[in-house]
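Hi R.,

As promised on Friday, here is the backbone we talked about, encoded as structure tokens. Could you run it through your design pipeline when you get a chance and send me back a sequence?
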């Protein structure tokens, strides 16, 4: 149980970290809004690649 909670926190850190880096780069480039969206997109891609290993839109066993 504790390992699952830690794993979810790591995923949240990936998204938030990429978002903050995107905002910083966007501020340097002169467009923080675009940087935030790019950082958020990269964060979601990173979460998908390094996430819990779940497949999106899959049916759970409890639904069967």
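Update: got your reply. Pasting your designed sequence below so it's all in one thread:
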């Amino acid at each position: 149980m504790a390992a699952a909670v830690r794993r979810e926190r790591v995923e949240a850190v990936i998204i938030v970290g990429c978002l903050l880096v995107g905002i910083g780069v966007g501020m340097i480039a002169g467009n923080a809004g675009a940087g935030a969206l790019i950082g958020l997109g990269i964060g979601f891609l990173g979460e998908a690649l390094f996430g819990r290993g779940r497949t999106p839109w899959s049916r759970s066993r409890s639904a069967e």
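One thing I noticed while checking it: Residues 8-49 form one domain.

Thanks again,
M.
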